[in-house]
Specification:
The chain has 387 residues and is an alpha/beta fold. Among the domains are: 178 residues, Rossmann fold, CATH 3.40.50.300; 91 residues, Helicase, Ruva Protein, domain 3 (Orthogonal Bundle). Helix content is 52%, strand content 7%. The chain is built from 17 helices and seven strands. The strands form two sheets. Strands 2-3-4-1-5 form a five-stranded parallel β-sheet, with helices on both faces. A two-stranded parallel ribbon has the order 6-7. Helix 10 crosses helix 13, helix 11 runs parallel beside helix 15 and helix 13 packs across helix 15.
């Protein structure tokens, strides 16, 4: 748009304004001054509905959601106690809670305190509850007044390391900024240092160490992974050794504990095991848990549970009648199908097949009845009889 066009637009706008002004005065001259309580002529008449429609179409701001109250220490302690297994972990967490509580009491009474490092190393196989405990610890630290927010930020190598020089520090810093006030949980942390000296993962570690020092009052870092690999990770950098001095080992779940986890999932999802189904579930978990790393402990139990529900759905989809009871019931055949086992025919199916099968022909009866016996051959007459 050139200067000439701008002048024309300004002139048109001036003409429109003057016309509206003249029309307003003309209405007063014809009808007289507006009486009190009446509305004077308005150049915007006819545009009211348009403005109203625009106002209605404008996005309405949603009412702010009220934050749920933070759980108390008593509630968090009850949650910890309700977890299946994890006896050694529960003991360590309780020790940590008591130590932090006394640490705060000493500060409140003006007594000297030793530096308290709350950063931790979680080691163990997949599915042993590491992320679950990290999330609980973030809430516990919030309830104890150690952290300001008490949230959990979970990442792995891909969330910290970039592909070009100089970008890894920026990417890691953004994650740290998001985690401030809570717990930063780095899963498979050993992947940051096991790829050589020139790998960008070491840049992420250096950035992390500096942030841990700068934000020691409002940031807790938990690194997690397999046993031996986590040892190598901690010893790969003197800064890691000095900052991580709490080690929690997560044991594999026993068969009984995994069965308890499976039954807990059933209760939570409103399912129940029919007669004989629990034994089949136990066999299936035992067979697939030969390699705990591949099976994944509680993660493997969850996968089995979901596979069984798929087989139950396949069965019910072809059922003539479905009730609330059948929707909640898991049968042994559902478990067998989930494990790829042969499913025995049910008695009703066997009877139906028997009815549909053609009847076998009865063996032919001996045709030796008296009525049907062939007559004995007549003896030839003797010569004397002929004479």
């Amino acid at each position: 748009m050139d200067k000439k066009d701008e002048i024309i637009i300004q002139q048109l706008e001036l003409i429109r304004t003057m016309t509206e002004h003249n029309l307003s005065h003309m209405a007063d001259d014809i009808w007289g001054a507006p009486k009190p309580g009446t509305t004077a002529w308005n150049a915007d008449w006819g545009k009211t509905e348009e403005k109203k429609d625009k106002a209605d179409a404008a996005p309405q701001s949603e009412p702010e959601k009220q934050e749920e109250p933070a759980p108390t220490m008593e509630e968090l302690q009850a949650e910890l106690d309700s977890y299946i297994g994890l006896q050694a972990i529960k003991k360590e967490v309780n020790n940590l809670i008591n130590m932090v509580t006394v640490y705060k009491l000493r500060k409140e009474h003006g007594l000297p305190t030793v530096d308290l490092s709350l950063h931790m190393v979680f080691s163990g196989n997949p599915g042993t509850g590491k992320t679950m405990i990290a999330r609980l610890m973030s809430k516990i630290y919030k309830a104890l007044g150690i952290l300001s927010k008490g949230h959990l930020v979970e990442v792995d190598r891909s969330g910290l390391v970039a592909g070009y020089v100089g970008q890894t520090a920026i990417k890691t810093s953004k994650v740290i900024e998001e985690a401030k006030g809570g717990v930063l949980f780095i899963d498979e942390a050993y992947a940051l240092t096991d790829r050589g000296e020139n790998d960008f993962g070491r840049e992420a570690v250096d950035t992390l160490l500096k942030a841990m020092e700068d934000n020691r009052e409002d940031l807790v870092v938990v690194v997690a992974g397999y046993d031996g690999l986590m040892d190598d990770f901690i010893h790969s950098n003197p800064g890691l050794e000095s900052r991580f001095n709490r080690f929690l080992h997560f044991d594999d779940y026993s068969l009984d504990e995994m069965m308890d986890i499976f039954k807990l999932r059933c209760r939570q999802a409103t399912y129940k095991l029919a007669d004989g189904a629990e034994e089949e579930v136990r066999k299936l978990i035992e067979e697939q848990n030969e390699d705990p790393i591949a099976f994944g402990n509680a993660r493997g139990v969850r996968n089995i549970f979901e596979d069984i529900l798929v087989q139950q759905a396949n069965r019910l989809a072809h059922a003539e009648t479905v009730t609330a009871e059948t929707l909640m019931e898991i049968l042994p055949r559902d478990v067998l199908a989930a494990g790829g086992k042969e499913i025995p025919e049910e008695p009703a199916e066997t009877e139906a097949l028997a009815e549909e099968a053609p009847a076998e022909e009865a063996p032919a009866e001996a045709e030796t009845s008296a009525e049907e016996e062939p007559a004995a051959p007549e003896e030839p007459e003797s010569p004397e009889a002929r004479a």
